[in-house]
Amino acid sequence: MSKKTVDTKTESLKIGKFSTKYDSLYKEFATKYGLDWIMLKTIAYIESNEGLFKTTSVDGLSLGLMQITRSTAKLFYKRVVTDTELLDDRISIDIACMLLKQNVGLFGTNIKYIVMGYNQNAYDLKKNPPIERSGAINYWTKYQKYNAEIKKSYNI
Questions:
Q1: What is the extent of the structural domain holding 75?
Q2: Is 2 contained in some domain?
Q3: Nearest 5 degrees, angle CA 27-CA 38-CA 29?
Q4: HSE-CB of 107 using CA atoms within 13 angstroms
Q5: Which of 62, 64, 132, 146 has its CA 20 to 30 A from that of 4?
Q6: Does residue 4 fall inside a structural domain?
Q7: Which span out of 88-92, 140-144, 148-152 was modeled with the highest average pLDDT?
Q8: Domain assignment of residue 7, yes or no
Q9: Is residue 68 part of a domain?
Q10: What pairs with residue 63 in β-bridges?
Q11: pTM for this structure?
């Protein structure tokens, strides 16, 4: 099964109108890692339409709610992580938080780079100006749009 792409120009954001079954997990792990739970929700929406398309990505490299690669999972868990584990929402969010926390260490309070580093290799992003990395810029644009709509729907 491939990951569905969402046309952000024509499809209005449906997520966040009501809390989802994942909100308590976002809040739990955001508290554990000192992150913003709305950031997690926004990234989950970008990555898997907040769980609607959480199987393998189009390129076959990422899995789960937060679309974690096997290599990223191994980096943070210090062991091979099975595909079944990557499809577990708690594990997916946990690894995503570890990655975001690493990015906070690299980029401080620069939310733009923290978010772009989630989608792109953060170390490469630190070396190369983001203007040269169109994938990172596109990801940031989506993040801004969805984050604003989610916050509005939650009156944040």
A1: 23-153
A2: no
A3: 30
A4: 24
A5: 132
A6: no
A7: 88-92
A8: no
A9: yes
A10: 68
A11: 0.82
